[in-house]
Write a structure and sequence with these properties.
This protein has 228 residues and is of the alpha/beta class. The protein has ten helices and five strands. The longest helix has 26 residues. The radius of gyration is 18 Å and the shape is globular.
């Protein structure tokens, strides 16, 4: 698939991008946990998109806003989460993913590993990953079932509340959850169009990690011996 959509080679100075195993999909599907389980079992490096996106990329995010003629400061929380609609939030998120993906690629280019890197995050979109992989089996899209999403929202503090000072926290959370649902649904449609596997998550993440490992089997190093 590499190059099919762009006709150009992706700069990959250490060959890291060619060996990445990609996990994209919806929020609260357990992508981070599964990536860490695979990393431990197979001696790989895990790249967590959300952490880099929320912390390491802030300077580039500010520069992007300035380039687009927007104020450099973060948007007002009420404007971003309350006085809007999930549809507008999802559209804005999808529009920003290509630039944010380039920042993630720069992070990955700086890594060198003798083993594959497993990269996970909702911004690792199938339409962005597809042009740089040699097989659709190098990617997997994980999305939560409604029951699993509800469980995550109940049990994970960071999922169950937005954590920002807004005038209507309940509406902000509803908007956030529906935005996430819309973005996940878009990832599913795109993945299926591109022939990339979609895995609906409704069980324990240990079992899910086994299924994900089976999907990536051709590229995984042998499991590491585990301490008793």
């Amino acid at each position: 698939m590499a190059g099919d959509d762009t006709g150009t080679e992706i700069w990959d100075p250490f060959g890291t991008l060619r060996r990445v195993l990609w996990i994209g999909g919806g929020q609260w599907a357990g992508k981070s946990t599964v990536a860490r389980l695979l990393a431990v079992r197979h001696g790989m490096t895990a790249y967590h998109y959300d952490l880099h996106d929320a912390r390491g990329h802030d300077d580039r995010r500010i520069a992007r806003r300035v380039r687009l003629g927007l104020p450099p400061a973060d948007p007002d929380p009420d404007a971003a989460w309350v006085d809007t609609t999930p549809q507008d939030m999802a559209a804005e998120t999808l529009e920003g993913f290509p630039d944010r993906f380039e920042w993630a690629l720069d992070d990955l280019r700086a890594l060198f590993s003798g083993r594959p890197v497993v990269a996970e995050g909702w911004g690792l979109r199938p339409e962005l990953v597809a042009p740089i992989i040699d097989s659709p089996r190098r990617m997997l899209v994980m999305v939560p079932t409604e029951a699993f999403r509800a469980r995550q929202l109940r049990e994970l503090d960071r999922a169950g509340a937005l954590g920002l000072d807004v005038g209507d926290p309940e509406r902000a959370q509803r908007n956030r959850v529906e935005r996430d649902r819309l973005v996940a649904a878009d990832a599913v449609r795109t993945a299926r169009r591109l022939g990339i596997r979609v895995m609906e998550i409704d069980g324990t993440l240990g079992a899910v990690a086994v299924a994900v490992a089976d999907h990536f089997r051709p590229y995984l190093p042998p499991p590491e011996p585990q301490e008793e």
